Amino acid sequence: MKKAIIILSLLFVSSFNALQAATDPKPATESQKIREKIIELLGVPQIEFEEELIENTIHFMITQKGTVIVLDVKTKNEVMEKYIKDRLNYKSCGSDLTKMRFYSFTYKVKKPEA
After folding, report:
1. Is the model's pLDDT at 19 over the cut of 70?
2. pTM surpassing 0.90?
3. Of the candidates 39, 109, 41, the residue with the CA atom closest to the CA atom of residue 80
4. Cα(84)–Cα(82) distance, rounded to whole angstroms?
5. Pairing with 86, which of 1, 50, 57, 61 sits 20 to 30 Å away (CA)?
6. Does residue 72 contact residue 66 with C-beta atoms inside 8 Å?
7. Assign residue 94 a region: left if phi > 0, alpha if psi is -120 to 50, beta otherwise?
């Protein structure tokens, strides 16, 4: 009888752990949603550059209509600055995000492997 209780309790604990592992512990925050949308809009740049890694800081806002407006791009590569502005400026970012707010986003691009 004692063994049966121990086996049932172990079975219960293991099934509880399996259920807990299947659920997402943290829902996506708004900043994560914005980051995912910006990365989706930027896509993969088809630009050739000499540096191994280009780090870009993008300052932008989302308007009342959900449009992204790029305010500033800090980068050492002018081609990358133009690419970022072309891909993001005045693009729709979605309706479920906070409007009329300023954001800052770091976007790193690695040199493609040959």
Report:
1. no
2. no
3. 109
4. 6
5. 50
6. no
7. left
